[in-house]
What we know:
Layout: E1 6-11, H1 14-30, E2 35-39, H2 42-45, H3 63-68, H4 70-87, E3 91-95, H5 98-110, E4 116-120, H6 132-139, E5 142-145, H7 150-155, E6 161-163, H8 179-184, E7 191-195, H9 200-220, E8 225-229, E9 246-248, H10 251-260, E10 263-267, H11 270-277, E11 282-286, H12 290-299, H13 307-312, E12 318-321, H14 327-339, H15 341-358, H16 365-378
Amino acid sequence: MQEKKIIYFVAGEPSGDFIGSEIISELLKIYPSPSIYGVGGHYMEKFSFKSLFPMSDLSVMGILPVLLRIRSLYKRINQVVEDILSKNPDIVILIDSPDFNQRVAKKLRKKSFKSKIVCYVAPTVWAWRQKRVKSMAKDFDHLLSILPFEDEFFSKNGLNTTYVGHPAIPLIKQSNEKIFRLKYKINDNPILIFLPGSRDSEIKRHVKPFKEAFSKIKETIPNLTLAIPINDKKKHLISPYFKDAIIITDEEEKLLLFKEADAACASSGTVTLELGLSLTPMVVIYKLDFITWAIVSRLARVKFVSLVNLVLNKSSVTELLQNKCSPRNITKSILELLTNHKTSSNQKKDLLEFKNVMEDGSMTPSKRAAKTIQEILKE
């Protein structure tokens, strides 16, 4: 009879919560009735998982916002560490939220915690703060990476790494049916997607320059349809600005939209990967608060921020960052995609190359991750 396993997860963001739920689903096929503890959200709670505290307590991004909540975050770090020590799990899986989770790992090491500690979703230390990889090799036993070029980078710096694939890959289903257009009776009118980000601060910084740009774009393309996928709880931040837009809150409908749209203006992040896998031409925008941008821009060690450009290692997708994220630049770049067939066609060729690189292998990312965790537990 197989020994009952105790598995501890920490996910601090909605994306990490989804990843956690997918791994739990696969681990339940390997281990009968494991005891699962930790921090997570509504996706993980579908598996009778009870979070130690609300996951939203950890959803903080940017240097200034983190500093303003530093005391409460340290309190949560200590709470997680004490809970792990009391539960004494066979393995700890820390998903994304790198600043929080590495501090958890570091404290566990100092307290002589013996079980394996796995990091799932690497922090972007290859982009900036590269010296941090050395401490990661001490704090973690294994890394499950979601980008193909990370395996070599982390492995050569002393951290055992397995590329499992990006969790968004199996979500992008192949279909030639124009389901979204039929539902909203769009017919052959061009569709532009606006993806302002998932956090309040991102949405507020991106919505105004895009609104001004969209007014100009509509002057050139009057029959243009605007569609905005957004979390239902964030809809109030968007609705006042775009009265005639199609607001999408359903995840499956969002992915159908990606396949049928003509172009997208997207905040840098996971959605750019989803757009790339859907072969949707895009312009990537991003603005940070002044202090965070001043620090990050000085420390950056990469030429690009969008996942498509990073994976292909070339400037395929236009990136409009910080001061370049202006109404004028957004207007020009989006119109180039919508009116110049050669521009959009060239980017689609690059996106197909990107898709082929990302989808290498037949096993789903969550299944590959679960198999790797199983192997780590056997060590």
